[in-house]
C-alpha cells in the first residue's frame, strides 16, 4: 500500500507516493532524485544522512517519510541560495573541512542548524554541535575551523 504525502523540499512542494516503511533518506534519494543526502550506517550513528526538518537536524535514515507529511525539509542541495554557495558551504571549501565528501552533506546541514541557534559558538560548543557526525578522513580540526569561519562569514553578511 502506498501513501500520498506532500513535502516541501528545498522550498518546492513535492507530492510523492510511498510505502509506509519508506525511510526519508530513500524517499529523498530514490523517489525525488536528491542524491546529496548520503546514507552511511543506516543506524543513525554516522550523521551522513542528516537533513533539516523544519530547520532542525534529523537523521533521515531513521525517519519514516510518511511521518513528515506537510513538513519543510532542507537537504544539502537546498542550502545554497540564488547567489551561490551558503556561508557554511563556502567556509568548508575555504578551510578544507571536507576530504572525500561522503560525510560533508550531513556536516553542512548540522553546522547550518548549529549556527542558526548559536551564531558565535566556542570550540567546545562546535565540538558538541557536530558530535553526532562522523568523518573517517579528517581529524576534525578543519571541520571545526570551517564552522568558525562560517560564523564569521554569516556575521559579515548580516553586518555584525
TrEMBL record:
GO terms for molecular function: 2 iron, 2 sulfur cluster binding; anaerobic carbon-monoxide dehydrogenase activity; metal ion binding. InterPro entries: 2Fe-2S-bd, 2Fe-2S-bd_dom_sf, 2Fe-2S_ferredoxin-like_sf, 2Fe-2S_ferredoxin-type, Beta-grasp_dom_sf, Diverse_Oxidoreductases. Pathway: Alkaloid degradation; nicotine degradation. It comes from the Bacteria. Keywords: 2Fe-2S, Iron, Iron-sulfur, Metal-binding, Oxidoreductase. Its EC number is 1.2.7.4. Residues 3-79 form the 2Fe-2S ferredoxin-type domain. This is Carbon-monoxide dehydrogenase small subunit. It comes from Nonomuraea dietziae.
Amino acid at each position: 500500500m502506498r501513501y500520498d504525502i506532500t513535502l516541501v523540499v528545498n522550498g518546492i512542494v513535492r507530492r510523492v507516493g510511498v510505502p509506509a516503511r519508506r525511510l526519508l533518506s530513500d524517499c529523498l534519494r530514490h523517489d525525488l532524485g536528491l542524491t546529496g543526502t548520503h546514507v552511511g550506517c543506516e543506524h543513525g550513528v554516522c550523521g551522513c544522512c542528516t537533513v533539516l526538518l523544519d530547520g532542525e537536524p534529523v537523521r533521515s535514515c531513521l525517519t519514516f517519510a510518511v511521518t513528515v507529511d506537510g513538513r519543510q525539509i532542507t537537504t544539502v542541495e537546498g542550502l545554497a541560495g540564488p547567489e551561490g554557495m551558503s556561508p557554511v558551504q563556502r567556509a568548508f571549501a575555504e578551510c578544507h573541512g571536507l576530504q572525500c565528501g561522503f560525510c560533508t552533506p550531513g556536516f553542512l546541514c548540522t553546522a547550518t542548524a548549529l549556527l542558526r541557534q548559536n551564531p558565535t559558538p566556542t570550540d567546545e560548543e562546535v565540538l558538541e554541535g557536530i558530535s553526532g557526525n562522523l568523518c573517517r578522513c579528517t581529524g576534525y580540526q578543519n571541520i571545526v575551523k570551517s564552522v568558525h569561519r562560517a560564523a564569521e562569514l554569516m556575521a559579515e553578511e548580516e553586518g555584525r
